[in-house]
Amino acid sequence: MTEPKRSPCIVVGYDGSETAREAVAYATERAGGNGLVIVVHASGPGTDLLDPAHGQAVLDALLLESGNALIDHDFELEVADGPPAKALARIAAERDADEIVVGSRGFGRVRSALGSVSRELLHEADRPVVVIPYRYAREHASVGS
Predict the structure, then answer these.
(1) CATH architecture under which domain 38-144 falls
(2) With CB atoms 3.0 to 4.6 Å apart as the test, which of 5, 12, 103, 133 could cross-link to 20 if both were Cys?
(3) Model pTM greater than 0.90?
(4) Whether 141 contacts 104, CB under 8 Å
(5) Cis omega (within 30 of 0) for bond into 8
(6) pLDDT tens per residue, the chain (145 residues)?
């Protein structure tokens, strides 16, 4: 028997960047006090996902870098293998998430033409995607510092 879905359920991508930290803060705000935030860290090839030290290192960094964003919120950490956009879309579908939140790296038009997680996710996802722009994250990080 499956566990009942928490409402809302928000999947958020986390890679340790400034925009990812702001995406976690946004996701916890959207989830409110009754929702669930599923933080997804996608690791590429060569990462030993079965090594508990890897998952613990991601969790430690997440808790340290997200500041107070996760305090008083239900959250889970999933460390996934493979391309981040595919992992986020897959986990969101499996968990029947209401939306997916990711940060944008702000590489500009030339670099974005080569592809980015947020751009790819817009094509992979079967539910709403919220992208936190680099400028927004930078402005909010400087205000909170």
Answers:
(1) 3-Layer(aba) Sandwich (3.40)
(2) 103
(3) no
(4) no
(5) yes
(6) 566 666 899 999 998 888 888 999 999 999 998 999 999 998 765 555 556 676 778 888 888 877 667 877 899 999 888 899 999 999 999 999 999 999 987 555 444 444 588 899 999 999 999 999 888 877 876 444 4
